[in-house]
Amino acid sequence: MDEQVHPPELLPDLVSRATPPAPRRRGWLWLGLVAVLAAAIGVALWLHPWSAPARAPRPEVPQAVGVAPVTKGDLPIILSGLGTVSPIATVSVQTQISGQLIEVGYKEGQLVKKGDFLAQIDPRPYQVALSQAQGVLAHDQGLLDQARTDLARYQTLARQDSIAK
User: Are 124 and 102 in contact (CB under 8 A)?
Assistant: First the structure.
């Protein structure tokens, strides 16, 4: 009785230990072969002359020289490069009212002064609100006039003892 009895939960563990792992050399072999092939293609492309065929040298022709009058003025200096340009001062412009922007009177980066035209907002909603307010004012003035007329009539009737006090 050399046989050992194992509980069923240990059997998968024993079976996995009994079978040897599969060799992985084939995957590494293919990977190495592909890497060598890629390196060989890269070197071949690097060393291959892709330039256009050589042309016959052109004979040197004298350069044409122009003449211009001497003038006094500023010489423009243009520098190209990478970097960040930051302004001396930055101002945030905020409106006191809101609405649709119709026209902008400045360009980004332009220097502006106090009182310069900056932007125009659509005036139509504000014109409608003004007309409504004027209508309400006229209505209220009409009511005021009617109330003054009634007051004058009642004061006259009260002086004449025509109405009850």
Answer: no
